[in-house]
Amino acid sequence: MATTVDKGLLLLQALAAEEARTGAPVTNTWLAEQLSLDQAQVSRMLSALAAAGLAEREPDSRGYRVGPRYFDIGAAAMHTEALAKARPVVRGLLHAWHEPAWLSVLSRAQVLTVQAEPSQWFPYFPVRVGAMTPVWCSGPGRALTQDFSRDELAALLRDETFVGGGPGAVRDPLELFERNLNSTKMTAVVADSEFEHDVVEFSAPARCDQLDMTVAISVAVPKHRISDRASAIAASVADAAQRISSLLTTASPTAPKAGRPAP
User: Fold this and answer.
1) How far is CA 67 from CA 46, 50, 70, 123, 207, in A?
2) Which of 174, 180, 206, 216 is the most buried (most CB within 10 A)?
3) In what order do the strands lie in the sheet with 213-222?
4) Sign of the alpha-carbon dihedral angle for 104, 175, 187, 121
5) CATH topology of domain 80-248
6) Is the pLDDT reported for residue 224 higher than 80?
7) Strands 189-192, 55-57: parallel, antiparallel or unpaired by DSSP?
8) What DSSP designation does 227 have?
9) CATH classification of 4-69 is 1.10.10.10, yes or no?
10) What are 139-176's pLDDT values in tens digits?
11) Is the pTM of this model over 0.90?
12) Could you please report the per-residue DSSP string of 151-165?
């Protein structure tokens, strides 16, 4: 018997295939007929996919298209083999500091975790593959937007309400831009209580022009455990970013960008 997850994946596959074939939004009725499902059930699943960014509704046609996160996951999947080469580096940070370490990519105004090494010494910090966190209140988000101009940040965050995050989080795009400017002078981004109270995230970007991608490597440390280790942790994260950049550069030839098919 197919589970709800199975049906959701089949629905997403059918939606993507039909949109790619026609270039037009796909209706609830068509999907229900193709998958032999009740229209109310299809409607609920489409709403769930839309909430996750995997589908989006077009108000004019009342049909659906695949959403932005669908392409972000596809882009990350194209580089799975290359990213696998970075796993020993991520694990190395976990073993060096006994704190959670993870790898992230930009997904619109969110940060998507693509590799994660949780720590048994810090079990309540949410490091898991597939997790999404806001750009404006996370160390990886700041690392991934370091090169953004003021206008680019304003455009990226135009729909953000800046509600939530930790007490150290920024509350508007200009504040993020200024904080990013200051972090360029540092070994790595140090986000103090920006995502969670009394947790410091150390993050650095690793760029690879050949793969047309930038990832962020990060470590999260409870503030009371940092002591005099801040400089050493930041340096190790920056070194890890350089190593990952080298690994990605030699991992694969230029890959195509993921994106919505042309109509």
Assistant:
1) 11, 7, 6, 32, 26
2) 216
3) 132-134, 110-117, 101-107, 213-222, 199-208, 189-192
4) negative
5) Beta-Lactamase (3.30.450)
6) yes
7) unpaired
8) T
9) yes
10) 999 999 999 999 999 999 999 999 999 999 999 999 99
11) no
12) HHHHHHTTT-----S
